[in-house]
Specification:
This is Sulphur transport domain-containing protein. The protein is mainly α and 137 residues long. The protein has one domain. It has 6 helices and no strands. The longest helix is centred in the N-terminal third of the chain and has 19 residues.
Length: 137
């Protein structure tokens, strides 16, 4: 049941990204180009995601446990360290250069392009690099 729920959640996420236009790197890059030919349409996608998450977390966390798990797995750390800040900076740079972030990149694999391959290779390289860096606590 847990795997089925994960599949359904991933499918809904991917469909939402595709329907919302987040899998179109040109649209994403136009949204990020606030001093050029800015395309504000994705603000509605981002706003809908923030509103859904805000309401959803408040409703779900009222429950004693999830529907298909023994308990909630919530982050406990609240500190900022170099790995987090560096990773966020690299994520932003990569997103701004390619127009892809991980979710839309995976949702776009069916229409593979050279920039998408470059982004996926860089992302996988970043995962390996992050595992080699010393963890801080």
């Amino acid at each position: 049941m847990r795997a089925l729920m994960g599949y359904i959640a991933g499918l809904l996420f991917g469909l939402g990204l595709a329907i919302g236009g987040m899998t179109d790197p040109a649209r994403v890059l136009a949204f990020l180009d606030i001093f050029g030919a800015w395309d504000p349409t994705l603000i509605f996608v981002l706003g809908g995601a923030v509103a859904t998450t805000f309401v959803g977390y408040r409703l779900v966390l009222r429950r004693e446990q999830p529907l298909v798990a023994q308990g909630f797995h919530l982050p406990t750390r609240r500190d900022l360290d170099g790995r987090l800040i560096g990773g966020a900076a690299l994520f932003g740079i990569g997103w701004g250069l390619s127009g892809y972030c991980p979710g839309p990149a995976f949702a776009s694999i069916a229409g593979i392009t050279a920039p998408l391959v470059a982004m996926l290779v860089a992302m996988i390289g970043g995962w390996f690099l992050a595992r080699r860096l010393p963890a801080t606590s």
